[in-house]
Specification:
The chain is an alpha/beta fold. Helices cover 34% and strands 28% of the residues. The structure holds adenosine-5'-triphosphate and magnesium ion (MG).
Length: 260
């Protein structure tokens, strides 16, 4: 298993954020992670990336427990960082290089990967950021920064992609392009969070649902079944009963909002 979680609990600032999570992600699987604000999607993705550690239970990566001392071992650390890439929800926390070109080259250089120039060219082209290669990332628009951050994560060509709301702040064409690109990455394991129910099914056939104040997963199964399950969507807060007007007729019905 790429990831195996057993009874994972994680506290931050003395408060429980994740509770009693047990699931596995198989190599090559695409999993979409859903849940309203504050349910711990970002925390879970950071835990899968070995940036925060469970307070209870364990997370294993190909059978190796993801624990601080293991990640301090140079050989494991290098392998893990080469194999697993995380796109931060807040890309401003990721971008720190003087130019976009350096940003995309950073990962491959750090890991001593071959063909750095070629990787920069290819991934800049893929995400349409070639015109910005010489500019400082902090000058770019939100969506442009997101595309640079995606190019920076993908230039390492990780076997496992952890993507935290990758389509948020992308324009519709860029979001569609990203969905297509991910669909075409055969063999890559992807765990991706989103608030956008209309792309959830395209991002992953399997969906995991976190719900506020609830331990465990409210759903671990096909994403099409989740998206069609009004009761579950309402229970988890992803859909809500909503009164509004269509012309002169006021009425109420269940309603899903796409957040992006
Ligand atoms: N460093 C921290 N210290 C204390 N609490 C934290 C910290 N980071 C996150 N939290 C809390 O953990 C909970 C989960 O946060 P997280 O960012 O993982 O949620 P999320 O599902 O990604 O939300 P969103 O949809 O807004 O991105 C929140 O209630 C948040 O306040
Ligand atoms: Mg988040």
């Amino acid at each position: 298993m790429t990831f195996a979680l057993e009874g994972v609990g994680l506290d931050l600032g003395g408060r429980p954020v994740l509770r009693d999570l047990t699931f596995s992600v198989a190599p090559g699987e695409r999993v979409v992670l859903l849940g309203v604000n504050g349910t711990g999607k970002t925390t879970l993705l950071k835990a899968l990336d070995g940036l925060v550690f469970p307070s209870a239970g364990r997370i294993a990566y190909h059978g190796v427990p993801l624990e601080a001392p293991r990640l301090e071992e140079p050989a494991f650390r290098r392998r893990f960082r080469a194999e697993v890439g995380l796109l931060f929800q807040n890309v401003d926390a990721m971008l720190f290089n003087p130019t976009v070109a350096d940003e995309i080259a950073f990962g491959p250089r750090q890991l001593g990967l071959p063909g750095v120039e070629e990787r920069v060219e290819r991934w800049a082209e893929t995400f349409g950021v070639t015109p910005f290669l010489d500019r400082p990332p902090f000058e770019l628009s939100g969506g442009e920064k997101k595309r640079v951050a995606l190019a920076a994560v993908l230039s390492v060509e990780p076997r496992v992609l952890l993507l935290d709301e990758p389509t948020a702040s992308l324009d519709p064409a860029s979001a569609a392009h990203l969905v297509d690109l991910l669909a075409g990455l055969a063999g890559t394991t992807v765990v991706v969070s989103t608030q956008n129910l209309s792309v959830a099914e395209e991002l992953g056939r399997r969906a995991l649902l976190l719900a506020p104040g609830r331990p465990g997963l409210l759903h671990d199964g096909p994403s099409d079944a989740l998206v069609a399950d009004e009761r579950l969507l309402v229970e988890s807060g992803l859909a809500h009963r909503h009164a509004h007007r269509h012309g002169a007729a006021a009425h109420a019905h269940y309603h899903v909002h796409d957040a992006e």
